[in-house]
Amino acid sequence: KHIKFFMDKSLKTFLKHAGKDYYNRSVNPPVVRASTILFKTMQELRKHQKDIAKNKDVEHWDYGRQGTQTTVQLQRLLRKLEGAHQVFLTPTGFSAVALSIMSLCRPGDEIVISDGVYRPTQKLADGLLKEFNIKAIWYNPNNFNDLKNKITKKTKLIYVENPGSNTFEMQDLGKIISLAKRKKIYTAIDNTWATAYFFKPLKLGFDISITSATKYYSGHSDVMGGTAAVNKKVYKKVWRYNHVSGYRLSPDDAYLIIRGLRTLDLRMDRHQENTKKVVNFLKTQRKISRILYPYKGKEYKLWKKYYSGASGLLSLIIKSNSKNSVYKFVNNLELFGIGYSWGGFESLAVYTDPVELGTRPYFKLEKNEHLVRLHIGLEDSKDLINDLRKSLRHIR
Ligand SMILES: *Cc1c(COP(=O)(O)O)cnc(C)c1O
User: Fold this and answer.
1) Which letter does DSSP use for residue 269 in this model?
2) Contact 93, 225 (CB under 8 A)
C-alpha cells in the first residue's frame, strides 16, 4: 500500500496524517483532475464497477463525476471525522441540504422541519417541495411537544438545524431521535455551526449529518463545498439521488477542504476560546439586551448535553430607536468585515432584519430590537473586544 490510512489514530492525529501519498512522495494527496478514468483492461473496468456496487473502499471511482483520488481522500477523512458509513460531497453546502431532502422524500410525504432553519432551506421547503406535493410542517424549536404533535402517518423526515440559524435556539436532540426511531421516521440535521468536531450527529442516531464545507471545514473563505454524511440505513437512497442529480465537488475544491481540515481542531478550539472572551465582555454591555449563544440557561444546558464545544457564530439583540445608529455600530467595526457566510479565519458582522430571517412564527423581534450576527475569528481577542467596545459607542 502506497497510501497509509491512519484510521487507528486519534482524530487530531488522523486529521494531520490522512492522505499522505507515499507513491507520489508528497505529504498531501495530489489534485487529480479527470473526467475519463483509465483501466488497463475491460475486465479490470468491470471488476472495479462491481467493487463500487459492493461499496468497497476503492482508490478511485470509474468516472470523474463520481470523483477522483483527491475526493476519495477527502471522503476518507470525513468518514472518520463524522463516524459515517459514507460522505457525499456536493459543490455547495446548500446542495447537500437539497440532496438530503430530495433523496428521502416523495410526493404525498410530509416533512416536519424546525422553524429557524437556514433561509434557503426554508425556501426549498415552502416553495419547491410543495410543487412536488411534499408538505413542509414547521415546528417550534423551543417546544418538543409541538414537534411531537405535528407527526402524522405521512411524516417521512424530521429535519433539524441546531442551533437555529441566526437565533441559536438549542433543541433536545436525543428526544427527537427517540421519537423518530419509535415512529420509524428519517432524521437529518444541518450541523454546520458545530461541525462534527464538536458534535457527531450520526453517533447520536441521525441518519444524515449535513455540513457546509464552505464554513469551518475549509476555514479560509476561499472555497465552497458541502457534505452529507450518512449511515448505512439511508446510504442507497442518497447514493441513487446523487447519482442521477449529477452533484460533484471539484478536485481543486476538495484539495482546499482537505487542507482546511488539517487544522480544524486548532481553529475550532481557538474560535471557541475567543468567543467565550468576547461573550464575557458583551455580557457587561448595557446596550446589548440579549446574546444569542449557548452560554447560560436552557440553551447552555441543552448544548452541554450533546456538544463538546461551541463555535464562533452568535447574534446580539440591540435595543435602540435608531436603526441607523446600529448600522453605524456595524460600519465602524475595524476588524469585522461586513458580509455573508462565516467559518473562515476572520471576524464578520452583519445586520439581519426580519425579512432576511424569513417566516419565523416562533421568533419575535420588537420594533426597537435589532439583530446583529457576529462571527468571531482567530484574531487576538483583545483587539476584537477593543474594536467592539469602540464601535458600541455609536448606538443611541
Ligand atoms: C452557509 C450555510 C449553508 C449553505 O452552505 P453554502 O456552502 O453557502 O451553500 C447551509 N446551512 C447553514 C447552516 C449554513 O450556514
Assistant:
1) H
2) yes
How many Å from the N-terminal Cα to the C-terminal Cα in the chain?
Answer: 66
Task: Give residues with Cβ within 8 angstroms of 296, minimum separation 6.
Answer: none
Distance CA 223, CA 362 (A): 34
217 touches ligand 1 (CB under 6 Å): no
Task: Please report, rounded to a whole number, the percentage of residues in the chain having pLDDT higher than 70.
Answer: 99
The pick from 89, 210, 211, 214 for probing ligand 1's pocket by mutation, whose C-beta has the most ligand atoms within 8 angstroms, reads 214
pLDDT of residue 59: 78
Provide the grid cell at 219: 476555514
Computed on alpha carbons and rounded to an integer, the radius of gyration of the chain in Å comes to 22
The owner of cell 479490470 is: 44
Q: What is the pTM of this model?
A: 0.96
Here the cell at position 160 is: 433539524
Instruction: Summarize pLDDT for 99-142 with one digit per residue, the tens.
Output: 999 999 999 999 999 999 999 999 999 999 999 999 999 999 99
For a mutational test of ligand 1's pocket, the pick from 124, 162, 209, 212, i.e. the residue with the most ligand atoms closer than 8 A to its C-beta, is 212
In the residue annotation, 382 being an active-site residue is answered as: no
| Residue in 20, 186, 190, 255 annotated catalytic | 190
Instruction: Please state, as a whole number, how many other Cβ atoms lie within 10 Å of the Cβ of residue 301.
Output: 12
Residue 186 Cβ contacting ligand 1 at under 6 Å:
no
Q: Whose CA is nearest to atom 7 of ligand 1?
A: 93
User: What single-letter amino acid sits at 185?
Assistant: I
State pLDDT tens for residues 149-184.
Answer: 999 999 999 999 999 999 999 999 999 999 999 999
What distance in angstroms lies between residue 24's CA and the mean position of ligand 1's atoms? 35
CA–centroid distance, 94 to ligand 1, in Å, is 5
Q: What's the gap in Å between 302 CA and the centre of ligand 1?
A: 23
User: Quick check: is 183 catalytic?
Assistant: no
CA distance 347 to 376: 5
pLDDT at 2: 52
287, 367 in Cβ contact below 8 A?
no
DSSP 291-349: EESSSSHHHHHHHHHH-S---SEEEEEEE-S-HHHHHHHHHT-SSSEE-S---SSS-EE
Residue 110, C-beta contacts closer than 8 angstroms, at least 6 positions apart: 134, 135, 136, 137, 152, 154, 155, 156
